[in-house]
Specification:
- The complex is a heterodimer of chains A (234) and B (295).
- With 234 residues, chain A is α/β, with parallel strands linked by helices.
- Chain A has eleven helices and ten strands.
- A six-stranded mixed β-sheet of chain A has the order 6-7-8-3-9-10, sandwiched between helices. In chain A, strands 2-1-4-5 form a four-stranded antiparallel β-sheet, with helices on one face.
- In chain A, helix 3 packs parallel to helix 6.
- With 295 residues, chain B is mainly α.
- Chain B contains eleven helices and two strands; from the N terminus they run H-H-H-H-E-E-H-H-H-H-H-H-H.
- Chain B has a two-stranded antiparallel ribbon with strand order 1-2.
- The longest helix of chain B has 31 residues.
- The chains are: A alpha/beta (234), B mainly alpha (295).
- Chains A and B meet through helix 2 and helix 3 of A and helix 6 and helix 7 of B.
- Bound molecules: adenosine-5'-diphosphate and magnesium ion.
- The site of adenosine-5'-diphosphate (ADP) has 11 residues of chain A, from strand 2 and helix 1.
């Protein structure tokens, strides 16, 4: 039984359909990557998973619960956390306040897991979120997501606007997160990063899953890089 | 000179009260992007609750405050949950229309129940005062002003120090992200509107104690004052509302020395226009919720 299983999902914005017949699965404690060019529909898929947009058809099962059509709040309560594209921290609030809001639903006020994972945050708990570097903000956003003690963490564009070294630092923490019981569904434009850290991956092109499999094998597949890079640079 | 000092003193105590009138209006505007036309009506509704309690049961208006606050909070919560939430995503024009309609409904209801007469809550201490030099300070006004200051500071602390306050602020900044934390935005909105209504009701009670009120002219005047003060102080800025209230209170009071009758009402508009020209972001820094992001 998969942790998350999406079957034949159609979704979009209003009358515009973006996702067509999407099926993916995430197993417990796994890191799964979702790669694809800009505009392929990766963000839309994550939004559909957490109830931020309406689903047209298909099913989403999470830990035996059908969550297609559920509210954002109840999906969060069931154990999915979503680190949104652009991070969307509460900029006027401090790191501590951001993290505590992450634990709102579960009333979790224990910051130790997050601070152990990202010691840099521990030193900046009283700093206003807006005054931190992009990398620290991304750590804070991921930490905020973890505060709801999720079994599945969705991360949208982890590397957005960050220096490669910073990205490596943050990505290096993902296996630890997965091993401690929080599977990760990682959306990344940087295909090399995404495929090297994940166990399995799905390639999304214009709203459809066109390829899927073991990340290491996909990484070695020249056609993936070509089609993907061709779209991305076009 | 003594006339001037007297007017200034009156302006300060009146300004503190006006700050309390405005703080909830500013909060609702800042957090939900709703310009609540019925805010003054809510203040007057609170005044009637206290007035009834006083006339029927002889309850002192200061002691009636908890009752007024709870009643108005409940009313505000239900109005937001059942009505304003329905159009919260609509263009601001629609929410304006809705609160304008709500204003009419409340005012007509109050007129039916209580007639259009001027009312005041009589207390033994309202007419008593003490003197500092040539300046007379009525006890009632001073107490009302201190209470207003205290409540405004308490609200500011609630917003900056408590979990609930952070959740309200977060929902105001980025509702989508707040919902991803599992924060129920509709409930938070209703709580926010409830708080605003409760504070308006308390302010109305104080106004009824130190002066008079009626269901026809008072609500509009209070809504206008709240609007001007919110722009002055910056949307969603609690201390800004306090400072804005003092500025407007003093301006109206001093203006009253020079101008007569209805011209005093124009002072609020003048203050608003001057603010918009000199400092469109308000007197104190910028609004808390500059970058609003929807889901
Ligand atoms: N809020 C929206 N309203 C309408 N269309 C949108 C919206 N957001 C994204 N889209 C469209 O959906 C498609 C997929 O976008 P998105 O999921 O953001 O892609 P990705 O995250 O893979 O870059 C794009 O064609 C985009 O224009
Ligand atoms: Mg995206």
């Amino acid at each position: 039984m998969s942790l998350l299983e999406v079957r034949n999902l159609d979704a979009g914005y209003g009358r515009i359909q973006v996702l067509w017949d999407v099926s993916i699965a995430v197993e417990p404690n796994q890191i799964v990557a979702l790669v694809g060019a800009n505009g392929a529909g990766k963000t839309t898929l994550l939004r559909a998973l957490t109830g931020m947009i309406r689903i047209r058809s298909g099913s989403i099962t999470f830990q035996d619960h059908e969550i297609a059509g559920s509210s954002i709040e109840s999906i969060v309560e069931l154990g999915i956390a979503h680190v949104p594209e652009g991070r969307r921290l509460f900029m006027g609030l401090t790191v501590r306040e951001n993290l505590l809001l992450g634990g709102w639903r579960k009333n979790n006020r224990d910051l130790t897991r997050v601070i152990e994972l990202f010691p840099a945050l521990g030193e900046r708990l009283n700093q206003t979120a807006s005054t931190m570097s992009g990398g620290e903000q991304q750590m804070c956003a991921i930490g905020r997501g973890l505060m709801s003690m999720p079994n599945l963490l969705l991360i949208d564009e982890l590397s957005l606007g960050l220096a490669p070294k910073t990205v490596d630092e943050i990505v290096a923490r993902l296996p630890e997160i997965a091993a401690s019981g929080t599977a990760v569904l990682l959306v990344e434009q940087d295909i090399d990063t995404a495929l090297s850290i994940s166990e399995r991956a799905y390639v999304v092109e214009t709203g459809r899953v066109t390829k899927s499999g073991i990340s290491a094998e996909l990484l070695a597949d020249p056609t993936i890089q070509e089609s993907y890079l061709g779209l991305a640079s076009g | 000179m003594s006339r001037f000092l007297q007017a200034a003193a009156y302006g300060v105590v009146q300004g503190g009260l006006l700050g309390l009138v405005a703080v909830g209006f500013s909060l609702v505007w800042g957090v939900m992007n709703v310009v609540n036309f019925s805010h003054g009506a809510l203040a007057v509704a609170g005044a009637y609750v206290a007035w009834i309690l006083n006339v029927r049961f002889g309850l002192d208006p200061f002691l009636a405050i908890p009752v007024v606050a709870v009643a108005l909070f409940a009313f505000g919560y239900v109005v937001q949950r059942g009505l304003i939430n329905l159009v919260i995503n609509a263009p601001i024009f629609l929410t304006l229309l809705l609160t304008f309609g709500l204003n009419l409904v409340i005012l007509n209801g109050l007129q039916l129940l209580f007639k259009a007469d001027d009312r005041t809550i009589d207390t033994s201490y309202a007419s008593q005062s003490f003197a500092i030099g040539a300046v007379n300070v009525p006890y009632g006004r001073l107490a009302a002003c201190f209470l207003a200051l205290g409540i405004t500071v308490a609200l500011a602390l609630l917003m900056s120090r408590t979990r609930l306050g952070h959740a309200i602020g977060a929902t105001g900044m980025d509702r989508g992200a707040a919902r991803l934390m599992g924060i129920r935005a509709r409930h938070i909105y209703a709580v926010t509107f409830g708080i605003a209504a409760a504070l308006a009701g308390v302010a109305g009670t104080m106004i009824a104690t130190v002066g008079s009120f009626n269901p026809t002219t008072t609500p509009g005047q209070l809504t206008l004052d709240a609007f001007v003060i919110s722009v002055l102080g910056g949307l969603g800025n609690m201390y800004g509302a306090l400072v804005g209230g003092l500025v407007l209170g003093i301006a109206e009071s001093l203006g009253g020395l020079l101008l007569t009758g209805t011209w005093v009402n124009a002072i609020a508009m003048a203050v608003l226009i001057i603010t918009l020209i000199i400092r469109p972001s308000g007197l104190i820094g910028k609004a808390l919720y500059g970058g609003r992001v929807e889901v």
